[in-house]
Amino acid sequence: MVPILLVLLLALILFGAGFAVKVLWYVAIAVLVIWLLGFLMRSTSASGGRSRWYRW
Prior knowledge:
This protein has 56 residues and is mainly alpha-helical. 70% of the residues lie in helices and 0% in strands. It has one helix at residues 2-40. The chain is rod-shaped and about 75 Å long.
């Protein structure tokens, strides 16, 4: 009984970790796309150069 519970617990932990990693990949891809769009669509400044679109 205990080995079965340990295997089920291990499977649950690995499934949870895999799901979290998959969600983090989607978040990273979304942030990359937003960053690229902001980088490509930034406006020009009064002097004709490109201005920074971020605050830091």
